[in-house]
Each structure stands twice: as structure tokens, then as C-alpha cells.
Amino acid sequence: MQHRTSGIRRAVLAAAAVTLAATGCTTQAVGAASAPSAAATASPSPSSGASAAGGSGPAASASPVAADPARADEVLMAEGTETEQVRELQARLRQLGHFHRSPTAFYGSMTAKAVSAFQGKQGLPETGKVDGTTWARLTAGSRTPTAGELRPPTTNELDKPDERCMTGRVLCISKESRTLAWMIDGKVVSAMDVRFGSENTPTREGTFKVDRKEREWESTLYHTAMPYSMFFSGGQAVHYSSDFKARGYNGGSHGCVNVRDKERLASVFGQVKVGDKVVVHW
Questions:
Q1: CA 10, CA 188: separation in Å to the nearest integer?
Q2: Taking the C-alpha atoms of 227, 230, 233 and 234 in order, what is their torsion angle to the nearest 10 degrees?
Q3: Which of 85, 95, 127, 188 has a Cα at 20 to 30 A from 170?
Q4: Predicted model pTM
Q5: 3-state secondary structure (DSSP) of residue 275
């Protein structure tokens, strides 16, 4: 009877093994030790959380590059592509000094030019398109971008602060880069894009102080709203401009420093005190 029972058990186990094979299960799936599956041994994407340069953080790319050498020439991104991987591409190129704007996630002519410059430095064909080889070189030579690098606070790149901005509490305003940096003891606390007055009503340059603050204000000369005004030179002030938000640099102010990021300015408005320094410079 015992021999008959053992034979039945062997028959049942054999049938179960056939069933598992037919449904795609592996022996590891039922607990037996075996070699890792192909999925477990595949090379990770260069963007899957840590670059070859040692960066860390969440993956920004949804299109991994295969380790297969046969795919080295496959075009991953080119003009017209609009993905989060393009945003990561632009941030990495910016780290290396090839891209000088904030990442947009859109692959245009400026991105193609930056890619060509990187390829030239690497001794690769300057196609302006990102293939597997170009992407692998870029991720190896840069780190995984931070959230601030992927979506920086300003469209324009901050330039080197004026020396007058390096001490104390300062609204450091650059006409060269068209940015405002709120700085405390030489460190940038917040930054935003700004625009200035026209040729007929220029924004004055120099060192000033915040004379007064007005959360809600309307220009008595031009009858336009000036929320979060911080006056620093007579009637000239740093303030939010809905026109700047709508039209960008196609317009200009009557001498004030316009800001288009209302939420960011509101935060800085709450921190700035009357008497804090304002530096407007080239």
C-alpha cells in the first residue's frame, strides 16, 4: 500500500510540473532555488535612480537604454520629442555647461545644439540626436538631477551675485540675467524671473533700501494693480505683474521690477523687512 501511495504522489507532482510550465511559472516561483530570471539580471537604465557618476534620487526617465550593444545607435530622443526624459537630458547637459536654460521637457533646436556640443566633446558623431551611446556617455559623466535642477525656480540662469549682495539681507536684482535673488548672508533663499522698465522709463540702478511694503496697491499714475509691492526708489518697486505673466518679455514696466511668479513673490514679501537692502545691477 505504501508503494502504491508513493507512485500516486510522483504522478501528481509530475502533472503539477507540466501545468506550471504551461502557465509560464518558474521553479523559483514555487520556492525552489534556481538561476535568476532574465528580468532580474537585465542591466538597469542609467536613469533608474542612480547614475554611473554616483547620483541618487527618483528616476526621471521613462525610456531606459538597453545594455545590448546592438541598440547603441538607436535614436532615443530628437527634435520634436517631448517627454520627462528630455527634461532629464536638458538638466544633465546644463550640469556640464552645454545647456543654458531651464529644462522644458521639449526637444527643440537649442537642445539639439547642446547635444551636438556634448557629442563633439566626447568624440562622437555630432548628430544632435540622442542615441544609446550618447545617453550612456551623458549619464556616466553627470549625476541624477535633483528636483530643483529638473524644475528650477527661474527660466533665466542666475548670474554671479554682485559683491554688494554678499552680506546681510538683500534683494539682489540683475539686469544682465533678468533675475531677482532674495539673499541672506551670501546665500540664495529664493529666486525668480523679472523684467524692467522701458527705455523711456528705466529702472534705476544702484543700492537702495526697502522704504515700505504694500500687499495690495494700485499705481496712482497708471492705475494698474501692483500686488506685493516693495518700494525701494521713490515710486519704483518690486511687485507682481499679471501683464508680465501673460506677455512675458514682450512688454515692460514703467520703471518697476516686475515679477511673474505670484506665489514665490508672496513668500519673499512675507520675509523681507522694511530697511532690507536692494541692489539693482548689471
A1: 73
A2: 50
A3: 95
A4: 0.54
A5: coil
